[in-house]
Amino acid sequence: MKANTKLQREVQDAIAWEPLLHAAEIGITVQDGIVSLTGIVDSYAKKTEAESAAKKVAGVKALVENIEVKFPSSWVKSDAEVAKEVLDAFKSNYSIPDDKIMVKVEDGWVTLEGELPWHYQKEEVERVVKYLIGVKGLINKIKVKSELDDAIQKKDIEDALKRSSIYDSDIKVSVLGTTVTLTGTTNSLYQKEEAGRIAWKTRGIWNVKNELEVDYEYAF
After folding, report:
1. Interatomic CA distance for residues 142 and 33, integer angstroms
2. Terminal CA-to-CA distance of the chain, rounded, Å?
3. Is it the case that residue 220 has pLDDT exceeding 60?
4. Is the CATH code 3.30.1330.30 the one for domain 73-144?
5. How is 51-117 classified by DSSP, letter by letter?
6. pTM of this prediction?
């Protein structure tokens, strides 16, 4: 395991390296691989970018994110205005079936509910929302319910993992009905989440249980 001070410095460098974040004041504390982020940023995109940058650092086992979004007065919008922008953004994106998504906005926090046939559509929804001015946070309750009746093939998922740059032979795949479960260990939090994203691309899938553990061993 990396020393707390070394991991803290590497997370600081990773966040500062991102063009969107180089001027952001984000506090970082580390304890036994658990990284906590605090601070104030002026957009939800910066908040998510900081989280993403920290997860990619080798040695990060878990992330606690308490970054607050505060807008300049000229950027403040009513919840109704934010809701309209979200709906308009969905309508202009051909990959998002907007008629299947319910939007609620409260104090700048956007809550999404509904069902979509593919997980990439759920991810695209998040990508679209995070760049909208006035959004303070996102709660994505959208469920994936495949419209396909294809039986999930365990070997297809295993082959997809082997093709990826994050492949680790200790990742084990099991299938029960429309649910895929991943167990074993990975070397980073990023690898864990990437393995989950790969599994989500399976035809006929409704759910992924990502039970992978992060076990990073640093060679001094």
Report:
1. 30
2. 9
3. no
4. no
5. HHHHHTSTT--EEEEEEEE---GGG---HHHHHHHHHHHHHT-TT--GGGEEEEEETTEEEEEEEES
6. 0.81
Mean pLDDT of the chain: 91
pLDDT tens digits, residue range 26-56?
Answer: 999 999 999 999 999 999 999 999 999 999 9
The span from the CA of 4 to the CA of 97, in Å, is 45
| Distance between CA atoms of residues 196 and 208, nearest Å | 7
Model pLDDT, residue 167: 73
Residues near 119 by beta carbon (within 8 Å), at least 6 away in sequence: 144, 197, 200, 201, 205, 208
Fold of 154-214: Histidine-containing Protein; Chain: A; (3.30.1340)
